[in-house]
Design brief:
- The chain is an all-alpha fold.
- It folds into three domains: 98 residues, Serine Threonine Protein Phosphatase 5, Tetratricopeptide repeat; 118 residues, Tetratricopeptide repeat domain (Serine Threonine Protein Phosphatase 5, Tetratricopeptide repeat), CATH 1.25.40; 114 residues, Serine Threonine Protein Phosphatase 5, Tetratricopeptide repeat.
- Helices cover 75% and strands 0% of the residues.
- The chain has 25 helices and no strands.
- Helix 13 packs antiparallel against helix 14 and helix 23 crosses helix 24.
């Protein structure tokens, strides 16, 4: 790979003898590599000599496509911006710009470009990318405005119609979507993307049973792991987890498997307490999408259910060493839970504290922190921490947290020879009774 850019540099020099400028030659070489799917080689060539040759507008666009092909979205966005600055009407560069902005969640800086394109009478296919961008941002009204324009300019385009049908279900409801789907599909030829988005829109609107036949239509036309994942998710959303487990198992024997499908297959197996199978799915999914924090969390939770605490700790710590920039509060909380279940309370406290700094409103995190502190006899520290935490967080009832506070108050009062002040709620008393034989952190989760 390292030798290749040098060979291409010689090609650039040779092409100069044929009358092409170095700028145009670089453009042609990178475009050729991008078309052939050799994105890494295109990037290497550009990084080797791009600083010495002024890139053309097309070169910038092709480089952005190369970075996109390598999932390097920040660099792709950088060069897509430069390509748009050189030619504001470049639809391909603009589509890349919106896709990368969506992935990187850089919404505000992209909105002026979105508004300009919505107001551009020549805009067509780009309107769908703008709609998807706004959807990811949660701005559904602006998204459906873009697809309405798109439908008026590309009335037969099944991708535009599919995106519009998704938004109709979310914004106006299933009845409005149904009217559009019936009218459009009677005059045009729906493809897999169209039916997929009809189904996904209904699922997004929590009409999971209604979504299922449309998702099956999409799978018949073009089997894909992504749509299979949504089908399993909708079975689960409809309260049909046992059926979802069977369907997912059948699909995994014959269909496309990707990280999203394995994540959902793991989740439905977790629902029915097939924890070994759930762990297998999450582990395999992490191999395909190693930086996915939710997959890491789900795998950790499943290992805790299997009482494989040391393995959960090792997996979570190893993941943080590689992908800390992708970590969220759940990552640290479930690492802390794994440590706490393994009776490594001092280290657990450190990670609980990190999770609380990232999400101070989550009382469950504080309750489990207090459990670990109580296990180490840090009773006064629990009360002091609670006093500080209450000043910055909403106060609402949580039985597990109250249980740990009561325990700390009792020990502090006993140490001082006084009577503990109690604040026991009815819910806390029920939890105390249920957990009286256990000295483990509260671990019930709705994470998956």
């Amino acid at each position: 790979m390292k030798a290749l850019p040098i060979i291409l540099i010689f090609a650039l020099i040779a092409s100069g003898c044929e009358g092409r400028s170095p700028e145009k030659t670089l453009e042609r070489q990178i475009a050729k590599l991008q078309r052939q799917g050799r994105n890494g080689e295109g990037i290497s060539l550009f990084e080797s000599i791009g600083k010495d040759i002024e890139p053309t507008q097309r070169t910038l666009r092709e480089v952005a496509l190369c970075y996109f092909g390598e999932n390097r979205y920040a660099e792709s966005l950088k060069y897509a911006k430069q390509a748009i600055a050189a030619d504001p009407d470049d639809a391909t560069a603009t589509d890349l710009f919106f896709y990368n902005s969506k992935v990187l969640q850089e919404f505000e800086q992209a909105e002026p470009v979105a508004r300009r394109w919505v107001n551009n009478p020549k805009a067509k296919g780009t309107l769908r990318h703008i709609a998807i961008f706004y959807t990811k941002w949660g701005r559904y009204e602006e998204a459906i405005e873009a697809t309405r324009l798109g439908i008026s300019r590309l009335p037969k385009d099944p991708r535009m119609a599919g995106t519009h049908s998704f938004l109709l279900a979310v914004v106006e409801g299933p009845e409005s979507q149904h009217e559009f789907v019936e009218a459009w599909s009677s005059k045009n030829k729906p493809n897999a993307y169209f039916w997929e988005n009809v189904g996904k829109g209904l699922a997004e609107a929590d009409h999971h049973n209604e979504a299922l036949p449309y998702l099956l239509k999409a799978l018949k036309l073009a089997p894909s792991g992504d749509v299979a994942s949504q089908y399993v998710s909708s079975l689960r959303g409809a309260g049909r987890s046992e059926e979802a487990v069977e369907w997912a198992s059948d699909w995994s024997q014959k269909g496309e498997i990707d990280a999203a499908f394995l994540k959902m297959q793991g989740a439905v197996n977790f629902d029915v307490e097939n924890f070994d199978e759930a762990a297998r799915c999450f582990k395999e999914a992490l191999g395909l999408a190693p930086a996915d924090a939710t997959l890491l969390v789900n795998f950790t939770v499943t290992l805790i259910e299997l009482k494989r605490y040391e393995e959960a700790v090792d997996i979570a710590k190893g993941w943080l060493l590689k992908y800390e920039r992708h970590a969220d509060d759940r990552t640290y909380f479930y690492l802390a839970d794994s440590l706490s279940w393994d009776r490594q309370y001092e280290e657990a406290i450190e990670h609980y504290a990190t999770a609380i700094r990232m999400a101070p409103e989550k009382r469950r995190y504080v309750g489990n922190l207090f459990f670990a502190m109580n296990q180490l006899g840090q009773f006064q520290e629990v009360l002091d921490y609670h006093k500080r935490w209450k000043q910055t967080s909403a106060d609402y009832s949580d039985a597990h947290l109250e249980k740990q506070l009561t325990r700390a108050r009792s020990h502090v009062a006993a140490a001082s020879g006084g009577k503990a002040e109690t604040h026991t709620s009815p819910a806390e008393r029920i939890l105390q009774k249920a957990n009286s034989a256990s000295k483990k952190p509260y671990s019930k989760t709705n994470n998956l």
